[in-house]
UniProtKB/TrEMBL annotation:
Annotated protein name in UniProt: Uroporphyrinogen decarboxylase
Domain Uroporphyrinogen decarboxylase (URO-D): 32-41, 154-170
Lineage of producing organism: Eukaryota, Fungi, Fungi incertae sedis, Mucoromycota, Mortierellomycotina
Its EC number(s): 4.1.1.37
Organism from which the protein derives: Dissophora globulifera
Source domain of life: Eukaryota
Pathway the protein contributes to: Porphyrin-containing compound metabolism; protoporphyrin-IX biosynthesis; coproporphyrinogen-III from 5-aminolevulinate: step 4/4
Length: 370
């Protein structure tokens, strides 16, 4: 066994396994809850670390990544049921040989994006994730120890389509004209690129689980830009491949996996049979609709509009209560993990986050108790 596998056997015992039980479809005494992008700019303690260090420097320094991952766990002590490792989806394009900068106020920028299929020659032929991204595995192992079993640790990657979008657009242009040109004008090269990205994602997820991640999430944040047919060909095919390959490579050590294909409401049924244990929902589909489509095959995660947290605390409580009740709809055995429908915004008041978490605890516990 590798050094990771050796270390993993000595991890502290998990004291709160609500998230993992909910993911596997087991009964929980209340809904587990965590927040996409919970470690980040809405926290003053994060901004303090960020003022002293470059974004990717934090990712690459296990001590800093561990510190930042634990910030929301410590601040909302006992209220969060998961930690998610501090990193970014864009470490995959970096491993493939593209330069990525994090420009404050603008998000990620790739100064030399892929323009035509000829540019695929610029990508690293065969990526060794242990050479390029070992720091992530080290950060995960260190964080898992530092968590001391308080909550499970989630590892993640970006979905291949979303990563291809960044690699071709060069930033989050929110227009997708360049990457759409690729799929319509160069479909074969697009598939070559998506497959290359997928191979790295598989290795990266397997490595994260072996390093100590207890659950894995794939963020396909821009999948909703595709037509249903193109989603199937350019996104779903690779998402399914990731779940299959990661689970078979991990074998008996497989961990639950979540897929988040934002705005791809039309694909909900397909996603619920794509090999993932959990489907993370954005706010554009109602819990009632999601229940009726997924029929208990998977655990549903989500889906409060992140903008609700910008309103008053009374609104946060009311909206959260309505969401939780609708997910359960009177059925205590509903497979459910509470979350937002997308990442938390940077200007959210911290008290509203606490109100969201406390409301999920209170309302879901009440429902399950009956
Ligand atoms: O707490 C956590 O959730 C862990 C850290 C995390 C995660 C899961 C970060 C830190 N990024 C991500 C995933 C990620 N990154 C996604 C998928 C989830 C989502 O859609 O929100 C995407 C699309 C990115 C790309 C990215 N990186 C963006 C989005 C740009 C856009 O177009 O909206 C941004 C702003 C970043 C930078 C970033 N990543 C993470 C943080 C805290 C930040 C802020 C950068 C800073 O501190 O300057």
């Amino acid at each position: 066994p590798s050094s990771f596998e050796m270390t993993s056997k000595r991890f502290p015992k998990l004291k709160n396994d609500l998230l993992l039980r909910a993911a596997r479809g087991e009964k929980t005494e209340r809904a587990p809850v965590w927040i996409m992008r919970q470690a980040g700019r809405y926290l003053p303690e994060y901004r303090k670390v960020r003022a002293q260090h470059d974004f990717f420097e934090i990712c690459r320094t296990p001590e800093l990544a561990t510190e930042v991952t634990l910030q929301p766990i410590n601040r909302f002590d006992g209220l969060l049921d998961a930690a998610i490792i501090f990193s970014d989806i864009l470490i995959v394009p970096q491993a493939l040989g593209l330069e990525v900068e994090m420009v404050p106020g603008h998000g990620p920028q790739i100064p030399h994006p892929l323009v035509t299929p000829k540019d695929l020659d610029r990508l690293t032929e065969k990526v060794d994730v242990h050479k390029e991204l070992q720091y992530l595995f080290d950060a995960i192992t260190m964080t898992r120890h530092a968590l001391n079993g308080r909550v499970p640790l989630i590892g993640f990657v970006g979905g291949p389509w979303t990563l291809m979008s960044y690699m071709v657009e060069g930033s989050s242009t929110k227009q997708w004209a360049k990457v759409k040109t690729w799929i319509f004008k160069y479909p074969e090269a697009s598939h070559d690129l998506l497959q290359k990205i997928t191979d790295v994602c598989v290795d990266l997820l397997v490595g994260q689980a072996r390093a100590g991640a207890q659950m894995l999430q794939v963020f396909d944040s821009w999948s909703g830009e595709l037509s249903p047919r193109d989603f199937e060909e350019f996104a779903l095919y690779y998402l399914t491949q990731i779940a299959d390959r990661v689970k078979s490579e991990l074998g008996v050590d497989a961990v639950p996996m979540t897929v988040f294909a934002k705005n791809s409401w039309y694909a909900l049924e397909a996603l619920s049979t794509s090999g993932y244990d959990v489907v993370s929902l954005d706010w554009t589909q109602s819990p009632t609709y999601a229940r009726s489509v997924t029929k208990g095959r998977v655990t549903m995660q989500g889906n409060l509009d992140p903008n609700v947290l910008l309103a008053g605390q009374d609104v946060v409580v009311e909206e959260t209560e309505t969401m939780v009740k609708e997910f359960y709809s009177g059925d205590k055995s509903t497979r459910y993990i509470a979350n937002l429908g997308h990442g938390i915004m940077q200007n959210v008041p911290v008290e509203n986050v606490e109100a969201f978490l406390k409301t999920v605890h209170r309302v879901s516990r009440q429902i399950v108790k009956g």
